Amino acid sequence: MSRPRLAVLISGRGRNLQALIEAQRDGRIPAEFAGVLSNRADAEGLLRARAAGIPAVSVPHRDYPTRAAFDTALAQSLRALHPDIVALAGFMRILGDAFVQEFEGRMLNIHPSLLPKYPGLDTHRRALEAGDAEHGATVHFVTPALDGGPAVIQGRFRVQPDDDAERLAQRVLEEVELKIYPQAVAWMARGELMLRDGAALLCGHRLQQPVTLQDLEEAFR
Asked: Which position among 111, 124, 135, 140 bears the catalytic label?
């Protein structure tokens, strides 16, 4: 039986991509990499992908006159990879409805906030300005609503008095994102996670709320 094909979309350093590469390499994610796409030709994550032997291509958004034209080109490149799973890993472009609908049900995103709080950008600053006691990250299915698709798993921690936006970003990445994203992709690769009738199903159970760090399998902790 062939393994599902995983494509990853990035815009920057590729730290979450690296976590996915390592989890795939050691067998925790039972998938094969179809490729990595970036909207930035200078994205460091492209180098990480190529170093791991993964096909990596840039589709620079600045080369296209409109968002719709970029979406069309990106969809064409992604379609050519025949992905079963599409992981947005620090992909910093808003995707149009037509693109999302084509890949809906196959596409996950990792967002640096406790959704539904703070969709969009500047999540760490916004959490600090609101005086939040807790902060974290969420893996969710991608739907046309910005950062509004069904949540799968969240990780949270207490905000410390000396946390600023930069330190919060680092803590969210290291304490939460690098754990929950490989886990969610692994569930999807094993056929245990799916989107059905507008809801996330995990092991056949409809998620009324996202699972947590306590639900991580031992290999992902």
From this structure: 111
